[in-house]
Amino acid sequence: MTLLTIGAVGVVWSPSREITIDDGRLAIELTVPGHLAIDEVSVNPEDAPDCPATRYEFGDDLVLEAFSTGCAVAAPQRVLNGRHGTYRTLADVPGAIDVQEVATGVGRAQVFLQDYEEHTNFSSEWREPVAIVTLDDPVDAEFPTLLLRSDKAALSLDDLIVVVTSLQPMR
Asked: pTM of the full predicted structure?
């Protein structure tokens, strides 16, 4: 993946892809690496049947989720074997690492790493980059935050920050 610095715009990928999401819960635009595209959309995903949510998957590299304020967030959450956490705020996150705050065009974001592991036939561990964005002007008050995560650290923390800081309200 090639990164370019372009004037005041900041760091972007070459090539990159502009994504627009407008689903009644979210109305945002963001820039992702050019090899990524939305390949799965889930409303109220099967792995959280009692939790109104929206999930956009960009292959295995990036997930964008919004969880309803009505979702019960179980504590403590175990982040392993396909479960990456149901987060609306940093308080929902077990063991956030290296938390930093960044500005986006849609609100402040807390970006951090989380330890994720899988134990099936083999054991593997990753430090996944995650961001929780508090939306300044949510389209639906039931969905005041947005979560972006790179499963199994397919994107670096720096790459995720570039995606997060590209967030803008839909024009």
From this structure: 0.86
Specify the long-range contacts of residues 89-92, CB closer than 8 Å, at least 24 apart. Answer: 89/132, 89/134, 89/145, 90/132
Tell me the DSSP string of 34-97: TT----EEEES-TT-TTS-EEEEEETTTEEEEEE-TT----SSPP-BTTB----SSGGG-TT-E
All residues at 6 or more sequence positions from 77 whose CB lies less than 8 Å from its CB, including other chains: 83, 85, 86, 92, 93, 94
CB 51 within 8 Å of CB 72: yes
Residue type, 66: A
pLDDT in tens, 80-119: 555 656 778 888 888 888 999 999 999 999 999 988 777 8
